Amino acid sequence: MVVLNKIYTKTGDKGQTALGNGERVAKHSMRVNAYGTVDETNSIVGLARLHATGEIDAQLAMIQNDLFDLGADMCRPDIAKDAEAEYTPLRITDGQVARLESEIDAMNGALEPLRSFILPGGSALAAYLHQCRTVTRRAERLSVELASVEDVNTAAVKYLNRLSDWFFVASRVANNDGKDDVLWVPGANR
To answer: What is the CATH topology of the domain spanning 26-78+87-183?
Structure first.
């Protein structure tokens, strides 16, 4: 259980922060940028949920919890040393990736195939889901960049990749099952 009695610690006043293993790194490090962008995604999911109801809201709640798991995963380097840790570090699993894939398939099964690219918008929920998608893509790019120089859980990168797809398909569901999607018209304003 986490207990936060004091919110400010002053330990980051000189531009460093602690990772999950206690190591101190610069706040602008690649790892902090990656999991910070995951946190940003989670905040936008919270905004999307203001417009969500029913099953999609329940799924977004699960995603928010997963995003905290993902942040915990990414703030803990040295995956090879997990067995030596005081407690088992929290890692994203292939099961969480599979759940997203199952939800994507279920949502997409009710939609007409796309015949054009979609512009972000339509309903408020769809617009926020598109913003979730684009920030998730940035988190994925930062995570892939990090993985090129440090150890990163491969399931975490897969999760981000599927999550952006999930947000895309969910945005179509939020737009009256795609009927209210805003379609791109190439060269329309020439």
So the answer is: Hypothetical Protein Ta1238; Chain: A; (1.20.1200)
Tokens describing residue 68: 């905290």
Residues 6+ apart with CB under 8 A from 181: 118, 122, 126, 172, 175
With a cut of 60, say whether residue 1 has pLDDT above it: no
Sequence ranges of the domains in the chain:
26-78+87-183
Check pLDDT > 80 for residue 165. Answer: yes
Q: Which amino acid is at 135?
A: V
d(CA 154, CA 156): 5
Long-range (24+ apart) CB contacts under 8 A made by 155-158 are 155/91, 155/92, 155/93, 155/94, 155/96, 155/97, 156/70, 156/73, 156/74, 156/91, 156/92, 158/94, 158/97
Among 35, 26, 17, 16, which residue's Cα sits nearest to residue 143? 35
Coil/strand/helix, residue 88 = coil
Run of H or E including 68: helix 54-74
In the DSSP assignment, the letter for residue 27 is T
What distance in Å separates the CA atoms of residue 82 and residue 103, rounded to the nearest whole number?
30
| pTM to 2 decimal places | 0.93
- Using DSSP, state whether 118 is helix, strand or coil: strand
Tell me how crowded residue 80 is: count the other CB atoms within 10 A of its CB. Answer: 8
Q: Is 26 helix (H, G, I), strand (E, B) or coil?
A: strand
